[in-house]
Specification:
Layout: E1 5-13, H1 24-33, E2 38-41, E3 53-55, E4 58-61, E5 63-68, E6 71-76, H2 91-103, E7 107-110, E8 131-136, H3 141-155, E9 162-165, E10 183-188, H4 193-201, E11 205-208, E12 215-220, E13 223-224, E14 228-230, E15 237-244, E16 249-254, E17 257-263, E18 268-275, E19 281-289, H5 293-306, E20 317-322, E21 325-328
Parallel strand pairs: 1-2, 2-4, 7-8, 8-9, 14-21
Antiparallel strand pairs: 1-10, 3-4, 5-6, 6-7, 10-11, 11-20, 12-13, 12-15, 15-18, 16-17, 16-19, 19-20, 19-21
Amino acid sequence: MEERQWYKGDTHLHTTNSDGVLTKGQLVEACKKKGLDFMIITDHNFNSVEKSYFDGDMLIIQGQEITGEPGHVNVWGKKVPVDPPYVLDTAEDYEKILDLCKKEGATISVNHPFCTQCGFHLDLEAYPFDCVEVWNTIQHSDNMKNRDWWVAQLLKGNRIPAIGGSDFHKEYVNVLSLLASPTTYVNAKSKSEEDILEAMREGRCIVTNSPNSTTIFLHCGNAEIGDTVSLSDNQKLEIKVSDFKKGHTLRVYNNEKLIFETTAQKTSEAYLTAIDIEEEGFVRAEITYKFSPALEKLYTVVESKFLKGAGGEVPEFIWAFTNPIWIEK
C-alpha cells in the first residue's frame, strides 16, 4: 500500500476580494492559528490566488466559487480560464464554463446543493462534479438534506465524494468560531495541491466539526477510506474514533443497512471496535448528536430567521462522517 498521511483543511473561504472581511494575508494567518495544513480560497467569481503556493507550512490552493442565481460551484487547483463577469443564467451557461474548467484539469465541487437560501437549482446529475459539499458552515438542517441526497447517490452506485467547507466570510459571535467549521481531513500522498485534490476526488476524506474535534477512521485489512476491498477476503471492518463525546452516537452502515450503533456513555479519547461486513457495495460511518430541549428551542428561532422555510422538528445533526470504503465480491 502507498504510504499516505492525513491533512486537515478548509475547502471554502472568502476574502475582501469578494464578500469576506479578511484580506488574503489575514485569512492565511487565521487558518494557521487553527492548525490547518491546507486552505482553498474561493472568492466569488474572482481569482484571489493565481497559483497554489506555500506560506510557511500552510498550503494555499487556488480556487474560485463560480456564483450565479441557479447555483454555486467551487473550482479548485486551476484558474477559471475565462474572465468575469460571467453569464450564468441557464444550464448551458454552467455546462460551458465547467467544461472549460475540466479541460484545464480543475477539480469541481458543487456547493451546498440544498441550501434554502442559495441551493443548486439545475439538474445535479447533469454536471461533471468531482465532489459535493455535504456540510456547509456550522451545522444546520439544510446539511441533512445534502447528506440524504449524497447517500442516495452512493446507493445508486455513483461514487461522488463528500466534503465539507466553512464558507467563511467573517466571525459573527465571539463564542462560536465559524472558520474551519467544518474541517475536511484528506488522506493524501503528500501535502501538495496535486495530491490533496487527487485524494479528494478519490473520496479519501472525513469531515468533522472543527480542526481538533472527533475523527472517525475506517480500515478493512489494508484498505482505508476511499479504497475498494474484496468481500471474499472475509476481513472485519475496524472503526477508530477519537474524542468520542458523551451522548454522541456512532452509526456504521453497509449500504442502507445499519450494522452497528452505540452511544457514548462518557467522553473517551479513543474508541475502537471491529464488525463484520455483510454485503457488497460500501460501508461508511457517521457520528450524530441531538440538542437539549433548551437548545432546540433556541435553534428553531435562529434557523427560522436565517433559513427560508425552515422550522419544524430539529433533526439529529452530524458531528463527523466518513466517505465510504467500497466493497466488491
